[in-house]
């Protein structure tokens, strides 16, 4: 039997999460998703498929959306990460969060944080004006409840109003 060394945690690395610099003293194999949920206790970012296929774990890194389950935490040392908790709060919702509430863009709610994070990123991405274009731009985010029409309506409202 071979004696395998356990990978050592990194020391001295930091990530700015929701505007706060956080130490990243984790095993080198720790995903960004697991770091956010298990180490920082930011549980709004959901673990859905853990294979990058559902989008429930979508966060922003340096302003771009990524699937946190496919990224290693240490690969983002020095980066700025925004989770759903950093987007808005109950007393001051981001326009996209408010639109999701207004249009019932959620049902069970499990995919909602990833949907909202992708929708906010879509505002800064090239995306056509039609509903079909929005559906294509959101195709990496799955909703098992089928609230897609309401999600698209919420996104289109924010796009019309120029909200960010």
TrEMBL record:
Q: Which cofactor does it need?
A: [2Fe-2S] cluster
Signal sequence residues: none
Q: Which UniProt keywords apply?
A: 2Fe-2S, Iron, Iron-sulfur, Metal-binding, Oxidoreductase
Q: Which GO terms describe its molecular function?
A: 2 iron, 2 sulfur cluster binding; metal ion binding; oxidoreductase activity, acting on the aldehyde or oxo group of donors
- 2Fe-2S ferredoxin-type domain: from which residue to which, for each copy? 11-87
* GO CC terms in record: periplasmic space
For the keyword Oxidoreductase, the answer is yes
Recorded superkingdom: Bacteria
- Is the keyword Iron-sulfur assigned to this protein? yes
Q: Which Pfam families match?
A: Fer2, Fer2_2
InterPro entries per UniProt: 2Fe-2S-bd, 2Fe-2S-bd_dom_sf, 2Fe-2S_ferredoxin-like_sf, 2Fe-2S_ferredoxin-type, 2Fe2S_fd_BS, Aldehyde_Oxdr_Iron-Sulfur, Beta-grasp_dom_sf
Descriptive protein name: 2Fe-2S iron-sulfur cluster binding domain-containing protein
To which species is this protein native?
Answer: Pseudoduganella flava
């Amino acid at each position: 039997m071979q004696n395998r060394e356990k990978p050592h945690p990194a020391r001295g690395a930091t990530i700015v999460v929701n505007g706060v610099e956080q130490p990243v003293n984790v095993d080198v194999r720790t995903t960004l998703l697991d770091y956010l949920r298990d180490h920082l206790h930011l549980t709004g970012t959901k673990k859905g498929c853990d294979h990058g296929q559902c989008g429930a774990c979508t966060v922003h890194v340096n302003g771009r959306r990524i699937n946190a389950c496919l990224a290693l935490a240490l690969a983002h040392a020095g980066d700025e990460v925004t989770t759903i908790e950093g987007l808005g709060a109950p007393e001051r919702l981001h326009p996209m969060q408010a639109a999701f509430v207004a249009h019932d863009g959620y049902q069970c709610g499990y995919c909602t944080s990833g949907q909202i994070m992708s929708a906010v990123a879509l505002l800064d991405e090239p995306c056509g004006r039609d509903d079909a274009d929005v559906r294509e731009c959101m195709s990496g985010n799955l909703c098992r409840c089928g609230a897609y029409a309401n999600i698209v309506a919420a996104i289109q409202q924010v796009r019309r109003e120029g909200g960010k």
